[in-house]
Specification:
two-stranded antiparallel ribbon; 2 domains; 52% helix
């Protein structure tokens, strides 16, 4: 790894694979984690920087609590042009937050970018390596269907929009398996951190 520039690890994985748990493990080991979803929530939450632009593009979809997710979802669902308009508002703002995060942690040897749709929406070009969080399909299904409001139909729709797990694993530089015990997963994360920061 080059001195003075953090090594950027892109963290991704399909729904229900345990990506959030793995991101927390990296953070627990002192690795700064940029959470793209959390950045979007901040930008679209109460007083969020993107509310005026979103309201202008999609009238009636924001309020005192920030973006009304069901209303905005309904406004863009199944409409590729509307989704593109929304992405043009959101992506540059998230990109700016990511750059600021990078500048803030410029002296750190390793940084994790937690990007759920890394392969679907692009972004792998901006990282040094990609780690995919994966688990057997039956474990994934069980986890997802246990979520409030989730149905088998919704799960099937989400899977259709995501790059298949097998393809993600094939394109990954590293794979963290969460189909094992938490201790084993934590050990795998620790091993990877040590490897990438030259501590082994």
């Amino acid at each position: 790894m080059s001195a003075g520039k953090p090594y950027i690890l892109g963290l991704t994985g399909s729904i229900g694979m345990g990506k959030s748990a793995v991101a927390a493990m990296f953070a627990g080991l002192g690795v700064p984690v940029f959470d793209a979803d959390a950045a979007v929530h901040q930008l679209q939450g109460p007083g969020g920087a993107l509310l005026p632009a979103i309201e202008e593009a999609f009238p009636g979809t924001t309020g005192p609590q920030g973006v009304d997710r069901p209303k905005l979802g309904a406004a863009v669902f199944g409409d590729k042009d509307a989704l593109k308009r929304l992405e043009k508002i959101v992506h540059p703002a998230v990109g700016a937050m990511r750059q600021a995060f990078l500048a803030e942690h410029a002296e750190t040897p390793l940084i994790v970018f937690d990007i759920p749709l890394l392969f679907e929406k692009g972004g792998w070009e901006q990282v040094d390596a990609v780690v995919v969080v994966s688990a057997p399909p039956e474990a994934q299904r069980e986890r997802v269907l246990a979520r409030p409001g989730m149905t088998a139909e919704k799960f099937a729709q989400i899977l259709k929009l995501q790059v298949p797990d097998a393809e993600k694993r094939a394109r990954a530089d590293y794979v963290i398996d969460t189909g094992t015990s938490l201790a084993e997963t934590r050990h795998a994360v620790q091993h990877l951190v040590h490897r990438l920061t030259g501590r082994e």
